[in-house]
UniProtKB/TrEMBL annotation:
Keywords: Cytoplasm, Methyltransferase, rRNA processing, S-adenosyl-L-methionine, Transferase. GO terms for molecular function: S-adenosylmethionine-dependent methyltransferase activity. Residues 88-166 form the Ribosomal RNA large subunit methyltransferase M THUMP-like domain. Catalyzes the 2'-O-methylation at nucleotide C2498 in 23S rRNA. It is an enzyme of class 2 (transferase). It is found in: Cytoplasm. This is Ribosomal RNA large subunit methyltransferase M. InterPro entries: RlmM_FDX, RlmM_THUMP-like, RNA_MeTrfase_FtsJ_dom, rRNA_MeTrfase_M, SAM-dependent_MTases_sf. GO terms for cellular component: cytoplasm. Residues 191-283 form the Ribosomal RNA methyltransferase FtsJ domain. The keyword Protease does not apply. Signal peptide: none annotated. The lineage of its organism: Bacteria, Pseudomonadati, Pseudomonadota, Gammaproteobacteria, Lysobacterales. Its EC number is 2.1.1.186. It comes from Agrilutibacter solisilvae.
């Protein structure tokens, strides 16, 4: 067992399995830019990265969660427990927390990485929380009732006798266990790609932004719309949508009275008047997409955009950084630029940008 440290000894970040090198590269570069020395430790397809740093708490403050691209969740690691008796997992956890300076946590989440190796731990994670909560409340480290204003305690199982204790702070973490919003495919959605835009609007926009920027009567465009998954999401949010694609859209979208379908090339078409929104999920080279999206913003053709960048098989962090730098340099003044590899993304990241008025 590592020596517990109230300040934490590492960032513990989860990610999509297979993207550990990208997350490690992002954390390493961001830490260096913040002037903080450290190193990443991970294993391919593990679904998480640990970044060790003597000033881990300072590093956590220097890397706000909403600025990270490949992290689904960001935690401050407090201790690592290995080799305990699986018949009594509670006592080692209580003892480890007792060795830390007194702290009161508002919630307990018991989780596991989203990887093939860790999936068998799902049942343990679900059941163990119910057994652990009373013990932590008796020990005085967990509030009697959930309180989201206080730090959250995370128990992350890596194996049956191997876990990490970590904490997260309100407003600087994902609000969902494992960093995964549980969305369901709607029966009327034209394609599963609708889940990507739904997650993007839920993840990349804050609650006040969704209320302010997605209002009934706004107008948007969907470039490369067929069969209409992203168009459907915009319509559900009250927008009137111009869907650009040479392919067909689902008929019920056209029947809604809120969709105009233009058979045209999404990379060539431009609106006659400024729109509130433009979204794009076209399969194209990421730099070409970044440049075209920047043109839309620079020319004032839209005020807000969500688009995907399909990443190459190699040097994905480098390509991500290059594309975002290119977009930022060419898009004109931006009020917001956020990017994340979403749960429903695969070999891609999703970007939200808003023009400065």
């Amino acid at each position: 067992m590592t020596a517990p440290d109230a300040r934490g000894d590492a960032l513990f970040c989860t990610c999509r399995a297979g993207f550990e090198p990208e997350l490690a590269g992002e954390l390493s570069e961001r830490a260096a830019l913040a002037g903080l020395a450290g190193y990443a430790r991970t294993q391919r397809n593990s679904g998480f990265v640990e970044f060790f740093c003597e000033q881990a708490d300072e590093l956590s403050r220097s890397l706000p969660f909403d600025t990270l691209i490949f992290a689904r969740q960001k935690l401050l690691r407090l201790a690592e427990l290995r080799g305990f008796d699986p018949r009594d997992r509670i006592t080692p956890i209580v003892d480890a927390l007792a060795a830390l300076p007194p702290a009161l946590y508002g919630e307990l989440w018991v989780e596991h990485p989203d990887s093939d190796a860790a999936k068998p731990l799902a049942g343990l994670a679900r059941s163990f929380g119910n057994a652990l909560r009373p013990a932590l409340r008796k020990a005085g480290v967990l509030a009697r009732a959930d309180d989201a204003r206080k730090p959250r305690l995370h128990v992350v199982f890596l194996d049956g006798d191997h876990l990490v204790l970590a904490r997260s702070d309100a407003q600087d973490d994902s609000p969902w266990p494992q960093g995964i919003p549980r969305l369901r495919m709607h029966a009327e959605a034209p394609s599963r790609s609708a889940l990507k835009l739904e997650e993007a609007l839920l993840t990349l926009l804050r609650e006040d932004e969704r209320a302010r920027l997605l209002r009934d009567g706004m107008r948007g465009a969907d470039l490369g719309a067929a069969p209409g998954g992203w168009t459907w999401v915009l319509v559900r949010n009250g927008l009137h949508v111009t869907a650009i694609d040479n392919g067909p859209l689902r008929q019920h979208l056209l029947d809604s009275g809120r969709v105009d379908h233009l058979r045209a090339d999404g990379f060539q078409w431009q609106p006659r008047t400024a729109l509130d929104w433009m979204v794009c999920d076209m399969v194209e080279q990421p730099r070409r997409v970044a440049e075209r999206m920047a043109t839309w913003m620079r020319e004032g053709w839209c005020r807000h955009t969500v688009f995907n960048l399909k990443l190459p098989m190699k040097k994905r962090w480098e390509e991500t950084r290059l594309c975002l730098d290119l977009f930022r340099a060419q898009a004109g003044p931006l009020a917001v630029l956020r990017a994340r590899q979403l749960y429903h993304d695969r070999e891609e990241i999703t970007v939200f940008a808003s023009a400065r008025r």
